[in-house]
Amino acid sequence: QCAESYTASLEALVKEMESVLDPVPVKMRKLVSEHHNLGYFAERFDFSVLGAMNAAPGSLSETDPRHLDELADSMLS
Predict the structure, then answer these.
(1) Could you give the CA distance from residue 51 to residue 72 in angstroms, rounded to a whole number?
(2) Is residue 64 a contact partner of residue 49, using CB atoms and an 8 Å limit?
(3) SS3 sequence, 8-64?
(4) By the 8 A CB rule, do 48 and 32 touch?
(5) CA distance 34 to 53
(6) Which pick of 2, 35, 52, 75 has the fewest CB atoms within 10 Å?
(7) Stated pTM of the model
(8) Rounded CA gap, 25 and 27, in Å?
(9) Which one, of 50, 54, 45, lies nearest residue 24 by Cα?
């Protein structure tokens, strides 16, 4: 019963996300995140993952300013 309730909640959330994202054209669905952690979201809702602000996998690594410049350029293209 708990699994059914949880599944229903997830399905309702997906429908809500679809209605929120529906006005956004697929060609404009570009995603940048703090880390590479939203791949499933991007795949499910047709987003292109441009990259992450912190390109290194470790959470204690520093962000490279050159990487941020490249990421900003990719967001504008």
Answers:
(1) 10
(2) no
(3) HHHHHHHHHHHHHHCCCCHHHCEEEECCCCCHHHHHHCCCEEEEECCCCCCCCCCCC
(4) no
(5) 5
(6) 2
(7) 0.69
(8) 5
(9) 45
Residue 33, amino acid? S
Amino acid at 16: E
| 6 pLDDT tier (thresholds 50, 70, 90) | very high
How far apart are alpha carbons 10 and 62 in whole angstroms?
Answer: 35
What's the CA gap between 74 and 69, in Å, rounded?
A: 9
Q: Which residues pair with 33 in a beta bridge?
A: 52
From CA 6, how far away is CA 71, in angstroms rounded?
36
